[in-house]
Fold:
Amino acid sequence: MNMSLGILLATPFVGGILAYLGGKIHRWVRYTFAILFSVLTFCELFFYYGVESANLTWGKLFGSLLVLRLNHLSWLFAFIVTGISMLVVIFSVNDMEEHKGLDFYYLELLFVEGAMLGIVLAGDLITFFMFWEMMSWTSYILVIQNGEMSIKAGYKYIIMSIIGAYSMLVSLGMVFGEAHSLVFSNVSKALAKSSPGFVIAFFILFGIGLLVKAAIMPLHTWLPDAHSEAPSPVSPLLSGVLIKMGAYGLFILFYGLLSVQLLGKLMPTVLSVPLILYIIQWLAAISIVLATFLAILQEDAKRLLAYSSISQIGYVVLGIAAGTSLGIAGGLFHALNHAIFKSLLFFTIGAVIYRTGTRNMSELGGLIKKMPITFTGALIGIVALSGVPPLNGFVSKWMIYEALLQKKEVFLLIFAFVGSTGAFLYLYRFIHSVFLGSLPKKYENVREVPFLMQIPIWILSILAILFGVFPGIAMNVISKAESFFGITPVKYDLYGFPQGSGMGALKVVNISSVLIIAFIIVLVFFYMLPRSKRVSQYDTYAAGQIVTPETKYNYSYGFYMSFGRVVDPIFKWSADKLYTAWSRALKVSGDYMRRVYTGNLETYSSYIVVILTIVAFVILLGGRLW
Amino acid sequence: MVIKEILMAVGIPLLAFSIGIVLMMFKRKIIARIQRRYGPNFVQPLIDIFKLLSKKGNITHGVMYDLGPIIALAASIVVVFFIPIPGMKLMTGSADIIALLYIMVIGSLAMALGAGESANPNSSIGIARALTLMLGYDLPFVIVIITLVLKYHTTNLYVITQMQASSGWAMWFLPLSAIAGIIVTYGALGEHPFDVAVAPHEVATGPMAEYGGKHLGLLMINHAFHIYIELALFVDLFMGGASNIFYFFAKMFVIFVLLIFFDEVLPRFRVDDAVRFYWRWPTILALLGLIIVLVK
Structure:
């Protein structure tokens, strides 16, 4: 049993190396190894379903044990990691065909999977940090595969990641001096005894590293560039899984290393939430609203989804930092759901890019007739993301709202609601500009994507419906994870939630069955009425004009321009501009420094002469240097 | 028992539809009288629906175009079951008011998707406007909902209604929230000055521009449901429901007539001005109401 945790973790790494070597023989050897090993990792994980805890000590560093451990929470996140990675590998086969350096690409892909698996299985901070860094670097290499722009985006990404990682490293050093061991349980014991200032410093330093990865404003600036410039199959991995590692880390920090009780003792509480968690909740709420508004104004489909990721991860953090059982469950559930529907949306736009070669929404349109399966996937994705029943995003968002209501955190709740309504805007924009509206002439011969690329879309669509109608399936794991960390789990059943203290009841299955019955009745009624004739997209009402392919009307560019006018004053400010100004200031001061350090030997020797003269002069006058 | 449930399942949507359609009939009559016309036949809206449904010259632009009105109507029927009517809590035990907010969106979303497939820029502009406006009125609306939930310590709409029946209407305790609520109802119903989405002179009825025949017939039925839903929700939230269905109708009628009076004399906002308006006055009123409840 113990050894197989190591096997589970080693599988993706071995797979990556084998895929790399196999690629030297033939490309199908490479594909076989990559797919086989990513599926194998996913299957191995199911041997651990329901395992309370498994441990493996795999080394010793600076006198601290290196531990791998698995519990229900790690299982949940490992499920996300291995599941999405598997689909990404499958999707890559066709999508990346034309790409150069594919052997290395698959090596990196499986290494990212392995690194993320390592993070969720880590039982001590050294292992956690090692895999965390490995994830940053391997994913950086995946981001920069796409030419000039992606190298620029990757640069930003890795700079921010390094800042986060150093901050984390400092906190590790601090706590090592205190606890003399970095195994989670020892760290939490040491922190419980430490002074408030120490705990808060540790919290902030460690938290910055996590918040950079979770892309909470104002540390989000790397995300829109990196997620949109990365190759199509990598974006689902980044948006669906990688940013969840930040959320996982935050959970471990809040409830594994520290606890609400401990934080509550150290600092004042607001609405019975420790101040520092309350501040994080506010950062999350602000991220939700601002990222939503930014997403509404995007023209690039992948950038729109990237901003949407910032706002959705805001919900996850908002839930996790709430400190109540319902909020944490909602946050974790939303992390799972977001992985499902955001990866689904990135896969569909990846499919569109594969066939049309553009992700500029105003150039697309009308693809519903050419790519119906991709459209269905995108439709399920947007309905799930917008939090409309009966799909999965609804349940988790509902839980987060109820949790905020329970705690009377009304202003946060208002922000969460507005972000969710704003999501309708950008999601509709996404599906309208890509799949609805009129089809440009150049895309008249576009076909549906190959079967291998449809597989991820199918699987994720089914999961989105399944977890939406039967939230109990996911709640099963989540509630066990909660009780593992000493939090009383929420009451739930397969179909929803019973009435609880301060929360209403929810039976998604009732909502969806009534909806289906009503739908069937109206559908039958509709088809009993006279039949309708199919007309072309040019046969529309245009106030007397005749629409032809040459003079067609389409409303796609600047879809929400009037909304842009409303929120314009807010976006005169931006964190990105602030960082750019800061880096410019650094550069200017560097330029001044360079005037002194010319690199010229004669200048340096003249400096030495000048300094020596001054020193000699001072001594001659009877002064003392020190 | 089963027969009673089946009767209810059929009867309640029919009731909602009849209330909605009767209000539509009154609307046309009242507007005509304000404009010093005689106005159409009282049952004209019903005749219009039958006419549209029996038209033979239907067109379609594709599957989503057909599904739009179908899902919109189905979703409206579903929403009716989650809004309590006098003496019946219906399905409020399966979804509370927070969930209801999102169930109410299904129809609009489907409608938007259907209109989107028609490839008519008027429809697209109409939907862009409707969604922008929705973001506008949603802010005061959620504040109002939160205020009520905090006041009555429950998210169950039926319980909120019942508590008002015994302790007095929320309208009297929270007048500011009620005013914000009624302004939101204007936007949700797309009445002047918030008819930016339909705006016949600008975007040729917006989302409906391309719809005709049986599709438009379904959309008119849906509109009747929509009127019922918005008004019934307001009556349940602020006027304590009613003891029987006639009082329920009377309350809805009063609100609706009030709505028509303003609707008829006001011009139209530009869409960004409408959003600014909603984020300013109704939001301030709603926030004041919320603070009053929080402090108490």
